[in-house]
Specification:
Pfam families: Phage_integrase
Largest sheet: 3 strands, antiparallel
Family: Belongs to the 'phage' integrase family.
Radius of gyration: 30 Å
Number of strands: 8
Strand content: 5-15%
Strand order of the largest sheet: 1-2-3
CATH architecture of the largest domain: Orthogonal Bundle
Order of helices and strands: EEEHHHHHHHHHEEEEEHHHHHHH
InterPro entries: DNA_brk_join_enz, Integrase-like_cat_sf, Integrase_catalytic, Integrase_recombinase_N, Tyrosine_recombinase_XerCD
Keywords: DNA recombination, DNA-binding
Protein name: Site-specific integrase
CATH class of the largest domain: Mainly Alpha
Number of helices: 16
Structural class: alpha+beta
């Protein structure tokens, strides 16, 4: 039952909606300047909502975002890799906490979320005034949406104002590839990291997967490497977790790496790391060993090899491996398995440019087949 009554304040006459919640307790909503406004609110938020089973207690929406964020991020700590968990924590602290932590969830509007997303994208809403990449903007908007999804599920708010927000598109960075000759030249310029460059550039694993390899993961007879872990640097310490797609796999290494693999395994126990730094024997390769800056060791190795192809990074060695495998005649399923993609479709989407030549080969092969079957001339002449 809903009852609307007037009352007096210093500012004048106001109206109050008194009603019972689904649990039988009584409450009210105050502050309406007009009786019509009180009636409209009561119809929408109490009468109709109860009939539909969609009733939301307005007071439950007074909770601020911060405790909901803490509950949401705690779930991620259980389900996500530690490196990704810390990425989420850092992204929220740097880009969203100031805006949302102290806000009551029932006061957040879709328009407001849209303006915020635009402001961190162009830098007007960031602490340092610098624009955030599309990846970061999408990440924090999706985090807010996930937090407010929980608020909807808990019946704190009727709908999620962070869903359906326009987000920036990620710019696809053009893949850069090295030829086999260029790869060896860069490896020579990388000094003690030569083995690392060749393994990444010929096998295609991720940096973290290479860093986690141990002697027991090498099958010298079959030329196989077992990829079952990934080592990454999180908050200054190395964290070992599952590979990116969580699936262990075996990959090949070409015979050209056989002598190097045997040398690296010689005299070591099964649990010893396959790759480590000479100045830190027995320790994992760190983030510092995998540079992305223009003045890192990989850029220096490129310059020593006389290669100037824009800003290439160590990750481009993974693309190089894909290119060399396709050039050697590998089919998409083999490349998928080698790279650890979840599906062949993902491999095709990622490296569509590499498989363009397959269409040319298919065209030539079909033309040869038709010519052998003596149907080419008939079709060309318009015959049936």
């Amino acid at each position: 039952m809903v009852n609307i009554a007037s009352y007096q304040t210093k500012a004048g006459k106001r109206y109050r909606v008194r009603y019972r919640k689904p649990d039988g307790s009584q409450t009210d909503k105050r502050g309406f300047k007009r009786k019509l406004d009180a009636e409209t609110w009561a119809a929408e938020h109490v009468t109709v909502a109860k009939a539909r089973g969609e009733y939301i207690d307005p007071r439950d929406g007074n909770i601020t975002v911060r405790p909901l964020y803490e509950a949401w991020i705690a779930k991620k700590r259980i389900s996500a890799k530690e490196s990704y968990y810390h990425t989420l924590e850092g992204a929220w602290a740097a880009n969203a906490a100031d805006m949302w932590d102290s806000r009551r969830v029932n006061t957040i509007t879709r328009e407001e979320v849209q303006r915020w997303a635009a402001s961190i994208s162009d830098g007007t809403g960031t602490r340092d005034g610098r624009p955030r990449s599309a990846t970061v903007v999408i990440r924090v908007v999706d985090m807010l949406a996930g937090i407010l999804d929980d608020a909807v599920s808990d019946r704190r708010i009727p709908s999620n104002p962070a869903r359906g927000i326009a987000k920036p598109r990620k710019r696809k960075r053009r893949h850069m590839y090295l030829t086999a000759a260029e790869l060896y030249a860069v490896a020579d310029g990388a000094k003690w990291r030569r083995d690392i460059v060749l393994t990444l550039g010929l096998c295609g694993m991720r940096w973290g997967e290479l860093a986690a390899l141990r002697v027991r993961d090498v099958d010298l007879e079959r030329h196989r490497l077992h990829i079952g872990a990934s080592a990454s640097t999180v908050a200054g310490k190395v964290v070992v977790s599952d590979p990116k797609t969580y699936d262990a796999r075996s990959i090949m290494y070409p015979e050209a790496l056989d002598a190097m693999m045997r040398r690296r395994c010689e005299g070591k126990s099964d649990d010893d790391l396959l790759f480590d730094a000479p100045h830190r024997p027995g320790e994992y390769l760190s983030l510092a060993d995998c540079p992305t800056s223009h003045d890192g060791w990989f850029s220096v190795a490129l310059r020593r090899a006389g290669i100037d192809r824009g800003h290439m990074t160590v990750h481009d060695l993974r693309h190089t491996a894909a290119s060399l495998m396709v050039s050697a005649g590998a089919n998409v399923k083999a490349v998928q398995r080698q790279l650890g993609h979840r599906s062949a479709a993902m491999t095709l989407d990622t490296y569509a440019d590499l498989f363009d030549a397959d269409l040319d080969d298919l065209s030539a092969a079909m033309s040869d087949m038709l010519a052998r079957e003596h149907v080419g001339k008939t079709w060309a002449d318009g015959g049936a």
